[in-house]
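Standup notes
- DV: blocked on the single-chain target, sequence here:
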Amino acid sequence: MKYLSIITMKVCGLTATAIALFVSTILASHAVDLESRTLRYSVFYGSRDAGELEIIIERTDDTIKTTAISHLSDLARMFLPGQTIETWFRIEGEKVLLDRGHILDHKDETVSSEFTIDRDNGVIDYQPRDDVPIEDGDHFESTSFPIVLMTSVVESIAGQTIRDTNPKKSRYYVYQPPAKEKLELNGKMYKTWKVTRNKRGDADRTVTFWLDRKDQKVPLKIISTKKGKSTVMTLLNPS
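- DV (later): unblocked, structure below
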C-alpha cells in the first residue's frame, strides 16, 4: 500500500506531488499574488482513507517554501512511514524557479533523500544517488505541490512539457488544454480551472487539478491516476 508515498512524493504527482515551470515568455508569473497560508487535504486511495496532507506555504520577497506533511491514517501507518517534504523556490523577476527539496522521515527526523537543481552545471544533484542531467529546454514543476502552476497564466499551459521533480525522481509531463468547470465542495459551488497533465509516453498516468479561479488558483481537488487506480486529495479548508 504505497498510496501515501504516491502523494507525499508525487502530489501530484501529488505530494509525493519540482515546481518551476515554463519560460517566462510563455508563462507570466503571478508570484507577487501568492500569500503564506496553510492548506489541509483529505487523502483517499480508491475507497481507503489514507489520512490527511498538510501543506504550508511560506512566502518572502524572493523565495517560496512549501512543506508537505503526511498525517497517516491508522491503516496507512501499517505500511508507510510518515514523511515531510520541504521544497524551496526562488523568484527571479517574472519566473518562479524550483531550487531544492528534501524528505524528512518522521521516525528518526533524518533527511533520507534530497535534490538541488544545479543549473550552472546542468544537473539535478541528487543525494545519496547519482546526478541526473538537465536537458535543453527543461522547465521544472514540483511533485509535492504545484506552486508554479498556481503562479502561471493557466490559459497558456496547453501543450507545455514540464519536468515533474521530487527528492527521489524526475519525470516529464505534458499539459492538456485547461477547461473552466464548476466543482461542488462541502455544499458550495466553486468556479475552477480543470487542468490535466499526462506523463510523457504514458497516457494512462495522469494528474488532474481543479484550481479555484478566484482564490490564487489554490487546488481544491487533485486526482492522481496510475494503472487505473487513483489517489484523491480534497481541500478541507477552502476560503
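- Follow-up: Confidence is low (pLDDT under 50) at residues 1-28.
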